[in-house]
Amino acid sequence: MMHDEVVSRLRHVLTEGEIPPGARIPERELCASFAISRTPLREALKVLAAEGLVVLLPNRGSRAAKLTRKDVKELFEVCEALEAAAGELACPRISDAQLREIAELQANMVEHYRAQDLLSYYRCNRLIHEAIVRAADNAVLAGFYESIAARIRRARFITPMSPEHWALAIQEHEGILNALQRRDAGGLAHILRNHLRRKREEVVRAGFAEGE
Amino acid sequence: MMHDEVVSRLRHVLTEGEIPPGARIPERELCASFAISRTPLREALKVLAAEGLVVLLPNRGSRAAKLTRKDVKELFEVCEALEAAAGELACPRISDAQLREIAELQANMVEHYRAQDLLSYYRCNRLIHEAIVRAADNAVLAGFYESIAARIRRARFITPMSPEHWALAIQEHEGILNALQRRDAGGLAHILRNHLRRKREEVVRAGFAEGE
DNA sequence: TGGAACCATTTTGAATGCAAAAATGATCCG
DNA sequence: CGGATCATTTTTGCATTCAAAATGGTTCCA
Q1: Do residue B175 and residue B76 come from a single domain?
Q2: How many domains does chain B have?
Q3: Can you tell me the distance from the alpha carbon of A178 to that of A3, in angstroms, rounded to the nearest whole number?
Q4: Can you give the three-state secondary structure of chain B, one letter per residue?
Q5: In a domain, A155, yes or no
Q6: A54-56/A62-64 β-pairing
Q7: Backbone phi, then psi, for A63, in 5-degree steps?
């Protein structure tokens, strides 16, 4: 198995899979489930530790990282800067096809909102933000964004969304698409910042912290 | 030897040491020089590959990463966003002691400029930028910044600096310190962006690219 | 009976071993 | 003499092994 594949699979298990933050990472079991030996698994663990998804306790194994309140704050702060930058870069670079793709995702997302289908809504939301980052055509930015997104995914999506916030988020997304279509880099960056700042407040207010 | 120490030492060898971009990484020799076996060294290689400092060629070993023109562009774009964010965050957070420290570094830097001591100038310059990032008090941001800085360090510091650019850079640094002292977040972000954009243009114009 | 001390077991971190792939270079043929 | 082919050596990636550290459980003594 390819090295990168082990890293991806492990990342998936940690961000969307069965190992909750703070839990011990069962080296043995994962080796069995991935059908590899400890060496490549441990290599992947070190990579994810460098990314912040895993904490290595010397001589005491590894655990899925817990987000503290400060972590959440820091991650959102950086995410804000990255998404704003992505928006600014995307405006002059985005293709018509990419714009259409985002407009379509947006329409789907509104549908899911109308149907109050939170999970599908989240999926579309995520795809839109990823599409904007992709349109910025900057692999370094995309890599950092993905790394941050992986770390806050649980916090983002576990936090319950109030009806008011949800409605507001939809409105903001209209603004995002609009700014993109007008290629208004400054405006887009501004909306994205506010959008994320609001989300962050919601997450923080929900008292979200996996442990201190 | 601690795992993180192997990573740091290897990073140092790659960014400031004897292995130039594009060169083969001599696993054997490094094992001997670090007095470790291949296992921990390979773990460190994977970590640095995830950071972008090393490229792993399947079944063909690892090489120090070369920066393409696009890499340089991308790294500077993200660096701009990160430094601007750091500046904005630092303004409300920076302590008087930290301000004094930066003012002192600035004075030293001007001294080195007067003496036309490029190496010492660079060292001060780097310490100032790192101090601003530190003042932002955001570990995630600091980590990303360090990772970017490591990757462009060679490009930055190998590019020769024209007398005009050098003079301008000094001026800009006056503005940076001034904005920090006035806690003018917006102004500081603006100056930092311009400062980096100029540097980037210089690096790109110098035709810098380690290979495509 | 409660708690400390000791030993067995498990787990971790790193070295070594092994099979497969790539690089090297020697030979053979046109 | 030049180029292709095949054997040999080296290197790579992973599994296994080994020593040291931590964990857990039992015993022993106050």
Answers
A1: yes
A2: 2
A3: 41
A4: CCHHHHHHHHHHHHHCCCCCCCCECCHHHHHHHHCCCHHHHHHHHHHHHHHCCEEECCCCCEEECCCCHHHHHHHHHHHHHHHHHHHHHHHHHCCHHHHHHHHHHHHHHHHHHHCCCHHHHHHHHHHHHHHHHHHCCCHHHHHHHHHHHHHHHHHHHHCCCCHHHHHHHHHHHHHHHHHHHHCCHHHHHHHHHHHHHHHHHHHHHCCCCCCC
A5: yes
A6: antiparallel
A7: -130, 155
H-run or E-run covering B181: helix B163-182
pLDDT digits 0-9 by tens, A135-188: 999 999 999 999 999 999 988 878 888 999 999 999 999 999 999 999 999 999
CA of A40 to C1' of C8 (A): 30
A61-119 pLDDT per residue, tens: 999 999 999 999 999 999 999 999 999 999 999 999 999 999 999 999 999 999 999 99
- Identify whether residues B44 and B81 lie together within a single domain: no
Handedness of CA B142, B145, B151, B156 (dihedral sign): negative
For residue A115, what is the DSSP state?
Answer: T
**CATH code of the domain in which B102 resides:** 1.20.120.530
Q: Which residues of chain A (34-53) touch nucleic strand C at CB < 7 A?
A: 38-39, 42
Residue B185 contacts residue B88 (beta carbons within 8 Å): yes
List the structure tokens of B47: 């970590």
Instruction: Determine the residue of chain A that is closest to B151 in CA distance.
Output: A140
Report the distance separating Cα A73 and Cα B174, nearest Å. Answer: 31
Check which CATH number belongs to the domain holding B40 and give it.
1.10.10.10
Tokens coding A100: 């259409």
Summarize pLDDT for A26-68 with one digit per residue, the tens.
999 999 999 999 999 999 999 999 999 999 999 999 999 999 9
Q: Could you give phi then psi for residue B170, rounded to 5 degrees?
A: -60, -45
Q: Per the domain annotation, does B211 fall within a domain?
A: no
Measure B75 CA to nearest chain A CA, in Å: 7
- Confirm or reject contact between B43 and chain A (CB < 8 A): yes
Q: What single-letter DSSP state applies at residue A31?
A: H
Per the structure block, which two tokens stand in for A65?
């990282």
3-state secondary structure at position B62: strand
| pLDDT over 70 (residue A211) | no
Distance in Å from C10's C1' to A64's CA comes to 21
What is the arithmetic mean of pLDDT over B106-113?
A: 97
